[in-house]
């Protein structure tokens, strides 16, 4: 009886750890998807003139990007390395093998977003600033993101 309780507790603990890692990776997917929405659904269409310029929507998008930049350093702990990925993209092992490189990619993204916050005031400044943000996304993805096959 006592033994089976212990076994059940051990299984539960193991399961809790897996659930926690799964939750971490879900959080990173959710933040990245929000990044994608802000860039592809708000900032880019406004820069192209497909959507009317909307400073409030831009500020909201930049705030979300800024929050993601702040969360990124703790988003991919080594514990998620072994979690099986079912989404389209997955973190590359390079995140843990080249931590300084990953930190530099986060810093570039954070800098691009911080500078954009002070600069974007109209369509022209949006057009001028957006490529820097876009490059900081792809700069990280090129090395630290892999497509699930
Ligand atoms: C410092 C690294 C880094 C930066 C900067 C970064 N990303 Fe990502 N992104 C990743 C990694 C790693 C993944 C794969 C794992 C995941 O989804 O968390 C990813 C995945 C994604 C995905 C796919 C999500 C999924 O669930 O498959 C989208 C969309 C995305 N990023 C958009 C963006 C956009 C847009 C920006 C810039 C505004 C950005 N990312 C900036 C590292 C980064």
From TrEMBL:
Q: Which UniProt keywords apply?
A: Electron transport, Heme, Iron, Metal-binding, Signal, Transport
Q: Give start-end of the signal peptide.
A: 1-20
A single Gene Ontology CC annotation of this entry is: periplasmic space
**Gene Ontology terms: biological process:** electron transport chain
The UniProt record gives the binding positions of heme c as 137, 140-141
Q: Which InterPro entries match?
A: Cyt_c/b562, Cyt_c_II, Cyt_c_prime
Name this polypeptide is given: Cytochrome c
What organism is this sequence from? Afipia massiliensis
The beginning of the lineage is: Bacteria, Pseudomonadati, Pseudomonadota, Alphaproteobacteria, Hyphomicrobiales
